Structures
1.
Amino acid sequence: MAMKKRKLPLVYKPVGFLLGWSSGALAGLAFRKAWKMIRHEDNAPDALDRDRGWGEIVLAAAVQGAIFAAARSVADRTGAKAIERSTGVWPAEDRRGRD
């Protein structure tokens, strides 16, 4: 069983990469739709956009960050559950001090 745990992160890496990439793409789409609902604009402000105020730039960054973090967490958890179902082993270290 210990050998299986050591090798599993290598197996998980491509799965994690694909899930991370796809979650980032979906998060980008979700952010664009959310920004359009919030501000009724197609383009969110950039930090270097001279014509936008601090509040608008920080709001856009906070919304974008929250969406990306949520999407990444969903992708990571989905991948981990899939690996656990197929191998019977959770693909990360046990952080509770047990082996």
2.
Amino acid sequence: MASLAVIDPINVPVGGIATLQLQLVPPFKNTDPGRPENWSILNEAGEVVDPNSLRIVFSSDSCSFQRMRERAIIMVTLTTAGSDKDDRFKFFGNGLEYAEDKEDVNDDVTTDLTKDGQTLVFTIQNQGGVESTVDFGFLVSRKNRQTGELHIFEGPDPILIIERPR
């Protein structure tokens, strides 16, 4: 099995904002060649990436005023091309479920859904200067447009590492 690409660390500039766009590809029931059998996260180049390589690095040179403005924004868009036309996928609830005892204890991460539930936007801060690890799974619903049947799935379990070197 080929190794997964690693996501380059997101380096947040002093007093600034850094962004990253990812795609979440759910497995499909159809048997078309080339469709993923498992959940996949794709980077901007369309490569399947390691979901445990999400690192956000904030500068150690920031003063408290600059830290209040610093953000990393990660946009994760559902990519469902090739799925059954009767199925409607979208993020469910707030789009994620924290792993037990691995939630965001420092309140560094907020999420928002846009594009009718198709894009999950993470906003990450680190004002306190403490390193934290947030472990979660994506929550996605699939609704059959013909029958109204609704299924909820938990996708890959990424780990988000938020750090500010001392």
